[in-house]
Amino acid sequence: MEPTTIKTNFVFGKMLCKLFRHNYLQSKKITDHVHEYQCSCCGKRATVDIKGNIVDLTPQLQEINDTLSKVYKKRRAVTLRAS
Ligand SMILES: [Zn+2]
């Protein structure tokens, strides 16, 4: 695929998202209640904030999610070993 075609599809996808909102699909499970999402149209990434709203995935939120994921996995491993 030529770079022009990719750029055209990306721009077209962004236009669709502006008109009809993003089509977020779950891309990563952080915990049972926190997930990361990616738009199937334009590729924009999002996550859930402390109030449960979907917000843009900033570098700070990405770092928080990575740390939260490590803690969650470690805690889950301890819980499974204890039972
Ligand atoms: Zn989008």
Q: How many strands appear in the DSSP assignment?
A: 4
- Contiguous low-pLDDT stretches (5 residues minimum) are none
Bound molecules: zinc ion
Number of self-contained structural domains: 1
Biggest beta sheet summary: 4 strands, antiparallel
The number of helical runs is 2
For the CA atoms, what is the radius of gyration? 17 Å
Query: Could you tell me the mean pLDDT?
Result: 87
Give, in spatial order, the strands making up the sheet with the most strands: 1-2-3-4
Q: What string gives the helices and strands in order?
A: HEEEEH
Helix percentage range: 40-55%
Distance between the termini: 52 Å
Shape: elongated
How much strand content do the residues show?
15-25%
Instruction: Name the structural class.
Output: alpha+beta
Brief summary of the model shown:
The protein has 83 residues and is α+β, with helices and mostly antiparallel strands. The chain has two helices and four strands, in the order αββββα.
Key features of this structure:
alpha+beta, 4 strands, 2 helices, binds zinc ion, 4-stranded antiparallel sheet, 51% helix, 83 residues, single chain, elongated
